[in-house]
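testing teh design pipeline on a random one, pls ignore if ur not involved
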């Protein structure tokens, strides 16, 4: 029992420490070392269930620290009572922790016959479980391990090759090799081979990061990214609405850029309810200044005597079809079947959206074709590549005010950095409270606003063309490799 508790504390601490590998800390070696600790515990686990316990403790530490902002969203802005919000956050993290627990169980259950086989099973099993976490029940790929390498980690070069999951596989493989090198019980030849493999993986990542996978495709375009900094708790109050409209219009009129971007649901009203003279003033300004205004808004359409609501992005002046968010947030933008009762507990405005089409064309603004992502759609790299090869850049509008002064907005920024790395294209982000930023094709932030300030930042972005290997294939090669390797090693262990 004492050893069991020691393993749980050690793995839980490693999982919590893993969060420091992500924004705002960007300590990219930490996830690799944290996984090495977990894999060492799995290697010495006496049974599959003991390995599962270590994996579960790792996951609890990881998600309780890394997604603690869920509590802020539920309690502070969703008006859920504090004890219930704390319980809901814990249960959510407890569910997420099942995935590394399952990976540990598989590695030990099917790797009993050989220490080398057990170590070989760990990386693909871990990444397969991570993909399941990011896919099942609409998925939650937040804090995907590979994202920790964006933009400057030595394994970041795997992002344009194989995406975030391919980068996760490289990190996990390095962690297993670190364990192998440290095993004094292994023959010297085996440890030297493991060290050579570790060096080779890092060399591949470093070399690939120097390759320019895409090329400029037109003249630079100036983009102004607005940040309204409207507190979430007052955003939808009637008395505040007029001030919000006037403040955003003043920011638009002051912006000296070809494209002006407003954040998600920037103006607190349905698009068709905005004052006609207000919208006309924006159109007149855009035409006079040769600008395109790209704005997050809420559209509604009559349907069967009621309305369908869409979280959308529109362009002013008109002429381009709007983009409608298709990957909705459970409980925030739609209520899953059987959970209507939760509306009595949560007080979230507009929590019953309809989904847009899964595949939509890029939106042209300022002569640049932008692939659009609303809010956390940009954490799904495999979905964003559907805009390619047509899209020359990406644009994200978000409202991370839901998460208060937590790490969520910085973590979200790093997801955008990973998408830029994967696709070899610029990503610009306009958010309500932060982080509003422009990211180049190598994932580097070239302009940003401080969180919780009102203002704008201007960047010259470069449209780009061409396809990275990942843009051509999406997540499937890395995911297929993870599942195939897990199945092959597990079959080999079972056969022995």
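output:
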């Amino acid at each position: 029992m004492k050893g069991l508790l020691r393993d749980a504390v050690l793995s839980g601490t490693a999982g919590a420490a893993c969060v420091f590998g992500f924004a705002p800390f960007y300590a990219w070696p930490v996830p690799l070392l944290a996984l090495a600790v977990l894999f060492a515990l799995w290697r010495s686990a006496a049974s599959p269930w003991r390995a599962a316990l270590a994996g579960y403790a790792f996951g609890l530490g990881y998600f309780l620290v890394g997604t603690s902002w869920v509590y802020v969203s539920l309690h502070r802005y969703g008006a859920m009572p504090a004890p219930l919000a704390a319980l809901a956050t814990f249960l959510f993290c407890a569910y997420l922790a099942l995935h590394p627990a399952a990976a540990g169980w598989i590695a030990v259950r099917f790797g009993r016959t050989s220490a080398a086989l057990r170590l070989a099973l760990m990386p693909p099993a871990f990444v397969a479980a991570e993909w399941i976490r990011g896919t099942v029940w609409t998925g939650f790929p937040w804090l995907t391990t590979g994202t920790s390498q964006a933009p400057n980690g030595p394994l970041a070069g795997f992002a344009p090759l194989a995406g975030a999951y391919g980068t996760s596989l490289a990190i996990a493989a390095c962690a297993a090799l670190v364990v192998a090198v440290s095993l004094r019980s292994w023959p010297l030849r085996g440890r030297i081979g493991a060290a050579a493999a570790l060096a080779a993986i890092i060399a591949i990542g470093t070399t690939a990061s120097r390759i320019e996978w895409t090329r400029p495709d037109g003249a630079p375009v100036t983009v102004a990214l607005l940040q309204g900094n409207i507190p979430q708790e007052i955003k939808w109050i009637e008395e505040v609405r007029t001030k919000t409209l006037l403040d955003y219009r003043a920011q638009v009129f002051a912006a000296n850029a070809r494209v002006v971007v407003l954040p998600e649901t920037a103006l607190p009203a349905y698009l068709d309810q905005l004052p006609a003279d207000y919208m006309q003033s924006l159109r007149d300004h855009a035409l006079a200044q040769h600008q395109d205004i790209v704005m997050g808004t809420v559209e509604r359409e009559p349907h069967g005597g009621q309305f369908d609501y869409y979280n959308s992005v529109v362009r002013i002046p008109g002429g381009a079809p709007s983009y409608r968010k298709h990957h909705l947030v459970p409980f925030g933008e739609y209520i899953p079947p059987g959970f209507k009762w939760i509306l009595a507990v949560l007080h979230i405005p507009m929590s019953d959206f309809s989904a847009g089409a899964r595949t939509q064309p890029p939106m042209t603004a300022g002569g640049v074709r932008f692939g659009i992502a609303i809010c956390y759609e940009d954490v799904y790299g495999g979905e964003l590549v559907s805009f390619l090869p047509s899209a020359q850049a990406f644009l994200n509008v978000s409202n991370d005010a839901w998460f208060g002064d937590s790490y969520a907005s910085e973590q979200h920024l790093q997801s955008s950095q990973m998408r830029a790395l994967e696709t070899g294209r610029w990503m610009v982000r306009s958010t309500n409270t932060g982080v509003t930023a422009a990211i180049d094709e190598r994932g580097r932030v070239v302009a940003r606003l401080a969180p919780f300030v009102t203002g704008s930042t201007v960047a010259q972005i470069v449209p780009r063309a061409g396809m990275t290997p990942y843009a051509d294939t999406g997540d499937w090669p890395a995911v297929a490799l993870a599942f195939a390797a897990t199945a092959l090693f597990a079959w080999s262990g079972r056969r022995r």
